[in-house]
Design a protein that fits this description.
- This protein is α/β, with parallel strands linked by helices.
- The protein has two domains: 5-30 and 272-375, Aspartate Aminotransferase, domain 1; 35-270, 3-Layer(aba) Sandwich (Aspartate Aminotransferase, domain 2).
- It contains 14 helices and twelve strands.
- The strands form three sheets. It has a seven-stranded mixed β-sheet with strand order 2-8-7-6-5-3-4, with helices on both faces.
- Strand 5, helix 8 and strand 6 (185-188) form a beta-alpha-beta unit.
- The longest helix is centred in the last third of the chain and has 19 residues, at 273-291.
- The chain is globular, with a radius of gyration of 22 Å.
- The mean pLDDT is 97.
- Bound molecules: pyridoxal-5'-phosphate.
- Pyridoxal-5'-phosphate binds at residues 26, 76-78, 118, 120, 161, 188, 190-191, 213, 215, 225.
Length: 376
């Protein structure tokens, strides 16, 4: 059983706290908030401010940490994608902003690689946009992008995310072609940090707007996102957003969450990434050491720049595996006390432990339970 005052406040409602060994999964609570962020939220909550002024001030901090001209605190990364779409379609013209999601009189086509279609891409059509797809699962030629660009193109969408194919056109080539037609390139890199360098990377490579999550590895409030980019486009995103009464009004970010995000991202960029990675690697190695002898199971520590941005302990159920199925192992971990959620978003013969939201005590429980379930 998960214990402590935090656990009690959920248990009072009959909600059983869990161990999230899956990383910053929104469905399992996002991430643990930094103590400094809790403190900042607490202080900010009881004092009133003009929200336009606060949004602009927070935007300046985001601009600093991303190297972009401007920034904005969005409602999660997903909310920020809707604002990206609204900004490139309607700009800050109130007549157009008021008409969304009716796109009459606006450019409304978003060019996207077929290999970049993803579960959040509905955010780009929520404002009345439509997709024009290029490429296939295996490749995309520059002429396909050239051919897709037309007078209705609102933007080219580009996705940076773990576990997608890297066979899309290289990002810098997309920027060059799109900019040659005066079309902005808008990026979803919601979960593509760490490495912290990625907070500046895509802006430096010419992206017009980039979106990150505030509630994942940055460990700000779960409901926040970091939107950054060209000053005119961010100003348009801001115009379409709460507190203004346009399409973004339903995606309000509270003053205390804005303060929380600003606090979190400033701490995040100052952290010692090498030391953090070393600690995560050691945690994963403990899992691997405990399970290395399990016959038919392969246990490895994975860390790279594309899929395992945070080190993971990867468990592969090989053809020699004779125990319960991979899905049954996942379910057995969830059905125990406390419920443990492993990462299961990858290959169907793999499960993983992501240390991002685990303390040492929780890691020990995860290892003990894995041992029980796998050797039962
Ligand atoms: C997590 C994620 C989102 C959504 O982020 P939230 O901050 O939870 O809204 C969007 N796009 C991608 C690629 C993601 O990984």
């Amino acid at each position: 059983m998960v214990t402590g005052p935090g656990a009690d406040i959920y248990r009072t409602l009959g909600v059983n706290p869990i161990i999230a060994a899956s990383g910053s999964t929104t469905a399992y609570g996002g991430s643990k908030l930094r103590p400094e962020v809790k403190d900042a939220i607490n202080k900010a909550a009881g004092t009133m401010v003009n929200m336009d002024e606060l949004n602009h001030a927070a935007g300046k901090i985001i601009a600093q940490v991303t190297g972009a001209e401007a920034g904005f605190v969005s409602s999660g990364a997903a909310g920020g994608l809707i604002l990206q779409a609204a900004a490139v379609m309607a700009g800050n013209d109130p007549a157009k902003m008021n008409r969304l999601p009716d796109a009459t009189g606006m450019k409304n086509e978003f060019i996207i690689h077929r290999s970049h279609r993803f579960p959040y891409d509905q955010c780009y059509t929520a404002t009345g946009g439509t997709f024009r797809e290029i490429g296939d699962g295996r490749r995309c030629h520059p002429w396909e992008l050239e051919d897709a660009l037309n007078e209705n193109t609102a933007a080219v969408v580009y996705l940076f995310s773990p576990f997608i194919t890297r066979r899309a056109l290289p990002f810098e080539e997309v920027v060059e072609i799109a900019h040659g037609h005066d079309v902005p390139v808008i990026v979803d890199a919601a979960s593509f940090v760490p490495p912290r360098a990625n907070l500046k990377r895509f802006i430096a490579q010419g992206a017009d707007m980039v979106q990150y999550s505030g509630g994942k590895a940055v460990r700000g409030p779960q409901g926040t996102g970091i939107l950054c980019g060209r000053a005119d486009l961010i100003e348009a995103a801001f115009a379409n957003a709460s507190p203004h009464q346009f399409i973004g009004r339903g995606m309000k970010v509270s003053k205390e969450n804005i303060i929380g995000l600003v606090e979190a991202v400033q701490i995040f960029v100052e952290e010692d990434e090498e030391a953090e990675t070393k600690r995560y690697n050691e945690m994963c190695q403990q899992v691997v050491d405990a399970l290395i002898e399990v016959p038919g199971l392969e246990a490895t520590v994975e860390h790279d720049d594309y899929n395992y941005l945070v080190p993971h302990a990867l468990l592969t159920f090989t053809t020699e595996w004779r125990g319960p199925s991979r899905d049954d192992v996942f379910d057995a971990m969830v059905d125990g006390d406390p419920p443990i959620y492993l990462s299961n978003i990858n290959n169907p013969d793999e499960l993983a432990v992501d240390p991002l939201n685990l303390d040492d005590e929780e890691l020990e429980i995860v290892i003990r339970r894995l041992h029980e379930v796998l050797l039962d």
